[in-house]
Design brief:
The chain is α+β, with helices and mostly antiparallel strands and 495 residues long. The protein contains 21 helices and 11 strands. The structure holds protoporphyrin IX containing FE. The site of protoporphyrin IX containing FE has 22 residues, from helix 8, helix 16 and helix 21. Belongs to the cytochrome P450 family.
Length: 495
């Protein structure tokens, strides 16, 4: 085919250029094409989320160490509901608010996986359980735990919750000053020992086991999230404590299996349980039982004691809500007598709303995370669409989401009535995520409500409280986020 004369002249000129000039020209065209391509890519309706660049490699780490709350606040103000922060060799993409959350919570583990982001727990929980096993094995292990939380099982734990609370507060004087966080942390270790770890631990081995669990706790520091096997003293101690706990539980499990003696606790549930579709239908090993007990204890203990603390702090700071909850107790006593049972605790709607509101104001888990095994797209409330690539760590934040005015009316105000009809603000999908949501929503939620209600029923019936300090800030330095120290004066009185 003949070229038009003008083009033929141009082609002759190009071909007569030196190779060096040709390469330079080619490079310029390539750079121009890439730049145009990037602009066009950014204009496409589906694209990667904006990246909050900083210093290479350490930029994101610095943003994290500047405080996770600041990072979320600044990132949200700058980019909106979806943005990416490169942290060391990883990309962390934040999804903030209900519009961008459904896939995060609903997707299966083949798309949004937990093991890659939560595997720092393996040295604490131990081998062969939870994040150290394939997802289908983990699902069965959680199924075994769920069977320990049926209505009938929960009913059988309530007398233990009450007994521990009554005995604990019987030791308080007529009046005194306490820090709720310290008190509830001790009390909940006792009830967890009784209902989860079993009678032997609660009655004979409590101090020893509590010390070992404390060693495990101390071995979980922010560094452990990135380097769980770093050779540091707290990790060495963690490993020793984990080994000693395994030895104690192996003894207890063997004794129960040999004697045929049965108890009503979660330990018994694990002793009796069998895999169904994996591991040839066998029973759990002693090592697996120990690991699962530690895992459920870690999931429930600090989260529950912190929520119990915030519930008390906010009710003490907002007298009208304390009084309403106390009136509810009087009604329940009039109707059912003094006994606290599964049924009476379930009737306590005012107290329930106070607990939920405390959890909304201060969820103890700042971030819940997944690893994107497949790319997925999200659309923000303003209609922007992004594609989150495979390989990103994806994070949602209960704390931050709960403070969005599009989720909750006047979000900074303590207002338990927001959960009562007709408002029922918790019903907006993915607005209230204090217990997570969807596929991996908290299994222990009912257990937690019953336990916290039991504690606060005993307190509302026997004490008045006065905060001696202002409502404290949340302590973002700790792994599970609770209140900073706050002094509270209690005074005994009978309802
Ligand atoms: C107020 C107390 C509690 C809070 C705020 C809380 C919060 C949460 C949250 C946010 C998740 C979701 C994590 C994620 O999506 O990655 C979760 C999951 C879980 N929680 Fe709780 N939790 C509480 C009490 C408990 C208790 C008492 C137990 C056990 C006795 C427990 C056992 C679990 C378990 C086993 C999971 C994992 C579920 C799964 O991955 O499928 N939690 N919890």
């Amino acid at each position: 085919m003949d070229l038009p004369p003008e083009l033929a002249v141009l082609a002759d000129k190009v071909l007569s250029l030196s190779p060096v000039v040709l390469v330079a020209l080619g490079s310029a065209v390539l750079i121009l094409a890439l730049a145009v391509g990037r602009v066009l890519f950014n204009l496409l309706p589906s694209k990667r989320p904006p990246v909050w660049e900083g210093l290479p490699f350490i930029g994101g780490l610095l943003k994290f160490t500047g405080g996770p709350w600041k990072l979320l606040e600044n990132g949200y103000a700058k980019f909106g509901e979806c943005f990416t922060v490169p942290v060391a060799h990883r990309r962390v993409t934040f999804l903030i608010g209900p519009e961008v959350s459904p896939h995060f919570f609903k997707a299966g583990d083949d798309e949004m996986s937990q093991s890659e982001v939560y595997d720092f727990n393996i040295p604490t929980f131990g081998r062969g359980v939870v994040f150290d096993v394939e997802q289908k094995v983990r699902t069965e292990q959680f199924r075994m735990f769920t069977e320990a939380l049926t209505k009938n099982r929960l009913k059988s734990y309530v007398p233990h919750f009450n007994k521990e609370a009554e005995e604990y507060f019987a030791k308080w004087g007529e009046t005194g000053v306490v820090d709720f966080k310290d008190e509830f942390s001790k009390l909940i270790t006792l009830t967890a020992a009784r209902t989860l770890l079993g009678r032997e631990v609660r009655e004979q081995l409590f101090d020893e086991v509590a010390d070992l669990l404390h060693g495990l706790d101390e071995g979980m520091v922010p560094l452990s999230v990135f380097f769980p096997y770093a050779p540091i003293p707290v990790h060495f101690k963690r490993d020793r404590c984990r080994k000693d706990l395994a030895a104690i539980f192996a003894k207890i499990i063997r004794a129960r299996r040999e004697s045929g003696r049965r108890e009503e606790d979660v330990l018994q549930q694990f002793i009796d349980a069998r895999y169904q579709n994996v591991n040839g239908g066998r029973a759990l090993t002693e090592e697996e039982i120990t690991g699962l007990l530690i895992a459920v204890l870690f999931a429930g203990q600090h989260t529950s004691s912190i929520t119990t603390s915030w519930t008390g702090i906010f009710m003490a700071a907002n007298k009208e809500h304390y009084n309403k909850a106390a009136e509810e107790q009087q009604d329940i006593i009039r109707k059912f007598g003094n006994e606290l049972s599964f049924e009476t605790l379930s009737e306590m709607e005012v107290l329930h709303r106070n607990i939920t509101e405390a959890l909304r104001m201060h969820p103890p888990l700042l971030l819940v995370m997944r690893y994107a095994k497949k790319p997925f797209s999200v659309t923000t409330s303003t209609g922007k669409s992004y594609v989150i690539p495979k390989g990103d760590v994806v994070a949602a934040s209960p704390n931050f989401s709960h403070m969005l005015p599009q989720c909750f009316n006047n979000p900074k105000a303590y207002d338990p009535d927001r959960f009562a009809p007709p408002r029922e603000e918790q019903n907006k999908p993915y607005a209230f995520i204090g217990f997570g949501a969807g596929r991996h929503a908290c299994i222990g939620q009912n257990f937690a409500y019953l336990q916290i209600k039991s504690i606060w029923s005993v307190l509302l019936r026997n004490f008045e409280f006065e905060l001696l300090d202002p409502v404290p800030e949340a302590d973002y330095e700790s792994m599970v986020i609770g209140p900073k120290p706050c002094r509270v004066r209690y005074t005994r009185r009978k309802l």
